[in-house]
Amino acid sequence: MTNMRPPNKTTLLKVVILGDGGVGKSCLMNRFVSNRYDENNFHTIGVEFMNKDIDVDGEKYTLQIWDTAGQERFRALRTPFYRGSDVCLLCYAIDDYDSFRGLKQWRQEFVNYADVKPDKFPFIVVGNKNDMAHHCRQVPFDEVKQWCDQNTINSQIETSSKTATNVTDAFVLAVRQWKHMERIAEIELKQNDTIDLTKTIKLAHNRFCCTGGGSTASTSASGFQASDSDDESMNISSPRRVGKKQQKGQSLTQFQL
Ligand SMILES: Nc1nc2c(ncn2[C@@H]2O[C@H](COP(=O)(O)OP(=O)(O)O)[C@@H](O)[C@H]2O)c(=O)[nH]1
Ligand SMILES: [Mg+2]
Q: Is the pTM of this model over 0.70?
């Protein structure tokens, strides 16, 4: 699919920035989108997003960047906020160890509400405020790397919204990571197609051999139909989600045989 992309096509990616209050999420977004840094101006209320066009490896993207604050007060916003995300930036501040510890919970919350598979979703870990003096650092880069390795996250970067260090690079990294995951998802989808075709043939064979198999297939198929129609994620065109639908569709095909 990737190599069939028309020349001038722009891909819209929803990017969510998560992390404890004060780590610099809003400053990061504003530095990236407007190249501005204001220590006092950004007190995020609820949720807001900004768009920014960017070229990465010769392809055009519009990043729709979603920034949050006060998740507890705005609980009801969480599902729509997370749903349909393409990339998630997990942010901590290098001078605040607790904010690094908090990443585990942010990631888990995102996985639950966005309804994604953690090891198949592009997470980027961003250590902000790396302009701070050496003695202020509480979070060693290597410790974060270790955590990323344990959690199958392979993109990690340190930034400074204040000096603009690595800010654009963090979003470029996010796009590359998204693309990498898309490729993996496409390959897996193709592999699943092949495997399931074999299963389907076997199932069809069983069904015509014994009557019991037919009624079992019928019961499970209605279950799939019901869950198919009430799954909100079906509107979203990411291959990871198409994969989900495909699997359900395949089960239905087995029944129709
Ligand atoms: N030294 C330094 N301070 C920063 C940086 N980014 C943000 N800050 C400071 O951290 C405060 C909180 O930033 P903000 O973006 O509002 O954090 P948020 O709550 O995660 O959105 C700001 O008022 C800045 O003073 C940075 O890169 N370096
Ligand atoms: Mg904020």
A: yes
Query: Tens digits of per-residue pLDDT, 126-139?
Result: 999 999 999 999 99
The tokens 């064979």 sit on which residue? 205
Q: Which ligand is nearest to the CA of 166?
A: 1
Which class in CATH covers the domain with range 11-190?
alpha beta
Q: Amino acid identity, residue 39?
A: E
**For ligand 1, what atom is nearest to the CA of residue 40?**
23
Largest CA distance in the chain: 74
Ligand 1 binding pocket mutation candidate from 20, 27, 103 (most atoms within 8 A of CB): 27
Q: Which ligand is nearest to the CA of 94?
A: 1
Q: Taken in order 32, 33, 37, 41, is the CA torsion positive or negative? A: negative
Kind of pairing, strands 87-93 and 10-19? parallel
Please report the atom of ligand 1 found closest to the CA of residue 21.
19
Q: Which atom of ligand 1 is nearest to the CA of 30?
A: 15
- Per-residue b or e along 162-194, where b marks 16 or more CB atoms closer than 10 Å to that residue's CB: beebbbeebbbbbbebbbebbeebbeebeeeee
Q: Where are the beta strands (DSSP E) in the chain?
A: 10-19, 47-56, 59-68, 87-93, 123-128, 156-158
Q: Which of 67, 69, 66 is nearest to 14 (CA)?
A: 66
23-27, 79-83, 101-105, 127-131: range with lowest mean pLDDT: 79-83
- The number of CA neighbours under 13 Å toward the Cβ of 229 is 5
